[in-house]
Amino acid sequence: MRCHSLVIEDRSKKLVDISFDMRSSLALVGQSGSGKSLTLKALLGLLPSGLKAKLDIECDFELIPGKTLSFVPQNAFTALSPMTKIKDQWLNPPEAAEELFDILELDSTLMDRFPSQLSGGQQQRVVMAMALGSKPKLVLLDEPTTALDPTLREEMVKILVQLQEELRFLMLFVTHDIKVAERLCEDILVLKEGIVVEYGSAREVLMHPKQDYTKQLIEASFANRRFRE
User: Fold this and answer.
1) Which among 104, 123, 105 has a CA at the least distance from the CA of 115?
2) Alpha carbons 63 and 53: distance in angstroms, whole number
3) What is the dihedral of CA 191, 127, 83, 106, to 10 degrees?
4) What CA–CA distances, in Å, run from 135 to 2, 87, 131, 143, 210?
């Protein structure tokens, strides 16, 4: 998938102006307000009123939210209807639930529970299963590990790696945690105020950052990694 251009504007200025290639997995990394979530919303067609997007994207499938394109939000609990059992929120084929619940190590009895009866980790895995139930070609993830404690975050990273290996979807992963990006993604794109300031393989960006902004993000995630004397 190649994004030749993705521009998001309000009435007075450009908020995001980027381009990128996706080989298999790409992390969008940057501080709050850098344009990461706006980029996902533009791809989903969910920009707030007053903003408009211009997209020039080349890929071998049509981007159809809920079918070829799926989304995993940061807060799993708010993504689920609190008064509805999980089985009544499952909109994909029943056989998909069995396969995904097995991969995600979820018990099938969770289908008969309400979201409040699930732990935070279980909620996040259920939302992940829902997003993957349609067998999408591209999955957008908006910091799904941020609200998890370190143990659950490590488990989720391992699960995401396994899911992508088995299901072969493209992954666009938004995060401010460059350490998680290193574990999950082949490439990293660093955003600052809607502009690309660093882009390349995860190894190249992490080992040889060119911008002070990128170095600061890396230092914030890796306590033992310093680039400035």
Assistant:
1) 123
2) 15
3) -150
4) 20, 18, 8, 21, 37
Minimal CA–CA distance to 180: which of 145, 213, 206? Answer: 145
Contact 200, 187 (CB under 8 A): yes
The token pair at 10 is 């309000």
Report pLDDT digits (tens) over 35-57: 999 999 999 999 999 999 999 99
Q: At what angle do helices 150-167 and 94-103 cross, to 10 degrees?
A: 130
pLDDT of residue 153: 81
pLDDT in tens, 199-225: 999 999 999 999 999 998 888 877 655
The residue type found at 36 is K
Nearest to 92 by CA among 67, 123, 63: 67
